[in-house]
Amino acid sequence: MAESTSGDSSNSNPTPPPAPVPEHKSWADVAEEEVAEEANAASASSTAASSLNVDELTIDEKKKATKFLDEPEDSNIQAVTSGDTPYNSASTFEDLNLSPELLKGLYVEMKFQKPSKIQAISLPMILNPPHKDLIAQAHNGSGKTTCFVLGMLSRVDPKMQVPQALCICPTRELTIQNMEVLRKMGKYTGISSECAIPADSRDALPISKRAPIMAQVVIGTPGTIKKWMSFKKLGVSRLKILVFDEADQMLAEDGFKDNSLRIMKEIEKVNPHCQVLLFSATFNDTVKNFVSRTVKKDHNQLFVKKEELSLEAVKQYKVNCPDELSKIEVIKDYIFEIGENVGQTIIFVRTRNSAKMLHKSLVDLGYEVTSIQGALDNEERDKIVKEFRDGLTQVLISTDVLARGFDQQQVNLVINYDLPVKYTAEYTREPEPDYEVYLHRVGRAGRFGRKGAVFNLICGERDENLMAKIERHFGTHVTEVQEKNVEDYKRALKEAGLLQ
Ligand code: ADP
Ligand code: MG
Question: Which domain of life is it from (predicted)?
């Protein structure tokens, strides 16, 4: 299979001011891709939902083997199907008429037994003619990747060596991760694929000097894809399926809206029947309203009720810390000590500077941690993620570059060193939490129904207000853990199912 060897020039964004002032956002050229990677999704304002008939779809919930591997129990998905195309949800992968090569990929490589709920409901809509567009929302960790990867692999004609499926993702990490899933699942299909991300080496051949892309599936970030298209190296005239992962961010005003729309329009011009799939765990009302208008009129939709979005599987806690130093003490003396053997941990910070400072403080104290943020060069980013994936590192500090989509089943603990705040917040008196980013961060633990816990480190009145708003928004109570009470932390981890 082809590997990406070409790419864009690497970015060099200026070091941001310390928290809480958000990083300067530049909308120019390649820098846009990197900066917007850490941007948050747009804020919500309520608008009326679709007036189509809403059918509650249920699937056969056979007794599951182990409680530990359950899907989120609140996965109550509402489907709005357009027209009169009947769809039956699939209780087995065989129900989907997949090729024997794909079935083998699912069972042998992926070791999946049966479709998750979102897969059971969405796959018949994706795979069956007339291949309508689909907007699909489902919980973090519920298996959305498989929906669109199977969609892409099934729709590609193996005999035609041209790009037929295109998937656009917000970050290079998610691109690489989705590509790994596609190559594993599609191992026996012989389908070729290529990543469209900024080059991992400065001496890589520029796109202008490269041969046109022949790979049948292309997965990439919007800046690079747009660039390849404008250099006429990525032809889209034979494209059958276009996917946006983390679609709400891809189409949000303060996300990748401009690039995504440009790519979509370009494809539409030459290829009006290309199927468009939009996937995310979050679609706030503004984005929901907008995306419904960007896809074809007779599209199908799947949505989760807002109040059912917070993942019950991941227990949420808050710790009041008098100052920054005590946040670090809470992490090392309590969470690391007590949670030593509970799995891997991601610590989310708001800014690149915060990532650097926390990293330095923990390393100076003798802890082995790594950190990732958009300002690192690509090789470094890839290396840090790989080490974490391989289990060589247990603790990863990250900006919101990994808040969405990152799938590592061993992550059981998430620490919000800083709470996520909307980028517009600096212009308002009272900062607004970024609810979507909060949900996505929490969703890095508890993958596919596994257990998990999140500790929110609260410092001062500002954070208290933010936390209260988050609790109100999701209608959940976040239990307080006393800063210096060992028993409290133990109780919390036990309650989360992470300690005996
Ligand atoms: P999402 O994109 O919905 O957040 P992912 O697609 O990343 O979730 O899937 C989360 C995890 O669940 C992955 O590790 C994936 O391998 C696993 N998974 C997905 N579908 C199944 C299935 N049908 N059976 C078992 N595990 C699954
Ligand atoms: Mg995902």
Answer: Eukaryota
